[in-house]
Write a structure and sequence with these properties.
mainly alpha, two-stranded antiparallel sheet, 15 helices, CPBP family intramembrane metalloprotease, Rce1/LyrA-like_dom
C-alpha cells in the first residue's frame, strides 16, 4: 500500500510537471512573439512609443494566464505577492543589484573612460540618456525612476512570478533558472535593434553579454525568491538595477570608446561579480521540487 501510494504521488507530480511545462512553453512563446512582434512593428512604423507599449505584454499575458484559468487562486499565490518578505532580502537585493553597477562606473571613471561634467546645478544631473519616446517621462529622472520600478514589477510578475515556478515544476529549479534567464534576455532584443542598449558597442557582442547577464542574474534572483518567499525583493532588485544604471549613466555623461564594456549594465566587471556569486550559490540550489518545497 505504501509503495502504491508513493507511486501515485509520483504520477501526480509527473502530471503536474507536464502540465506546468506546457503552460510555460505557451507563455514563453507568446511573450517573446508578441513583444518582439510589437517591437518590429514599431521599428517599421518608426514609433518608439509602440515599442515601449510592447513591454506591457509581460503584464498582459501574466494576468491572462493567471486570472482566466479556474485555478486562479492557486496561481495568484504562486506569484508570491501576498506578503512582503523579510527585510534582509531587500537589503541583499539592493546590494547585489546596484553595487556592481556603481563599482563598474567608478572603475571606468578611474580609467578615464567616463567623466562627469562640471555642473553646479542639480538640473544638469536630472536629465537622462533615455529614448525620446515618452519624453515627458524619460527626460527627467524624478519622473523616469518610478516608471522603471513599475515596469520592473511587470517583468518580475512574468519571469519570477509566473514562468520560473512552472519551469521548476517541469524541469527542476536549476534548469528553470537558466531558461528563465535566457528568455528574459531574448525579450529585450528589440531594444538592441533600436540601438538604445549600450550605444557605441558592437551589436552582437552587446547582445551576448546582456544574455549572459540575464542568465547569471536569474540564478541570483531565483535564490532570493526561494529563500525570501516573496516577489517584492525582486521588484526592488530589478528596479534598483535599472535606476542605478540610469543615475550613473546620466551623471557620467561624457563617455569614450570602449566604456560600455567596463561600465555598462552587462559590463565585464558586473559579469565577473555576478558570476562569482552564482558559483557560490549553484551548489546550494536544490535539485528536486521536493527539496525546493522543503527549503521554502
Amino acid at each position: 500500500m505504501v509503495g502504491e501510494r508513493r507511486l501515485n504521488e509520483e504520477e501526480v507530480s509527473a502530471m503536474q510537471g507536464s502540465r506546468s511545462g506546457k503552460v510555460a512553453i505557451w507563455f514563453g512563446v507568446l511573450i517573446l512573439g508578441c513583444t518582439l512582434g510589437t517591437d518590429l512593428l514599431g521599428l517599421a512604423a518608426g514609433s518608439e512609443d509602440l515599442m515601449y507599449l510592447g513591454a506591457l505584454w509581460a503584464l498582459i499575458l501574466t494576468l491572462i494566464f493567471t486570472l482566466l484559468p479556474p485555478q486562479r487562486r492557486e496561481y495568484l499565490r504562486m506569484l508570491r505577492m501576498h506578503h512582503p518578505g523579510k527585510l534582509r532580502w531587500y537589503c541583499s537585493a539592493l546590494l547585489i543589484s546596484g553595487g556592481p553597477v556603481i563599482v563598474s562606473f567608478l572603475v571606468a571613471w578611474s580609467m578615464h573612460l567616463v567623466e562627469a561634467p562640471a555642473c553646479p546645478q542639480l538640473s544638469c544631473f536630472l536629465g537622462t540618456s533615455g529614448a525620446p519616446a515618452f519624453s515627458s517621462l524619460t527626460s527627467n529622472l524624478l519622473l523616469y525612476l518610478p516608471f522603471l520600478f513599475l515596469f520592473a514589477l511587470f517583468e518580475e510578475m512574468a519571469w519570477r512570478g509566473f514562468l520560473q515556478p512552472r519551469l521548476s515544476r517541469w524541469l527542476g529549479l536549476k534548469s528553470a533558472l537558466l531558461i528563465t534567464g535566457l528568455i528574459w534576455g531574448l525579450w529585450h532584443y528589440g531594444w538592441f535593434i533600436w540601438g538604445h542598449y549600450y550605444p557605441g558597442g558592437e551589436l552582437i557582442i552587446d547582445m551576448l553579454m546582456f544574455t549572459l547577464d540575464t542568465v547569471l542574474e536569474s540564478v541570483i534572483m531565483g535564490w532570493i525568491l526561494l529563500r525570501g518567499e516573496s516577489l517584492w525583493p525582486l521588484v526592488l532588485y530589478h528596479g534598483a538595477s535599472n535606476s542605478i544604471w540610469e543615475l550613473c549613466n546620466a551623471y557620467f555623461r561624457i563617455k569614450h570608446a570602449g566604456w560600455v564594456y567596463l561600465a555598462g549594465e552587462s559590463s565585464i566587471i558586473n559579469l565577473v561579480i555576478w558570476g562569482i556569486i552564482v558559483v557560490f550559490l549553484w551548489r546550494r540550489l536544490p535539485r528536486s521540487e521536493r527539496q525546493v518545497e522543503a527549503m521554502a
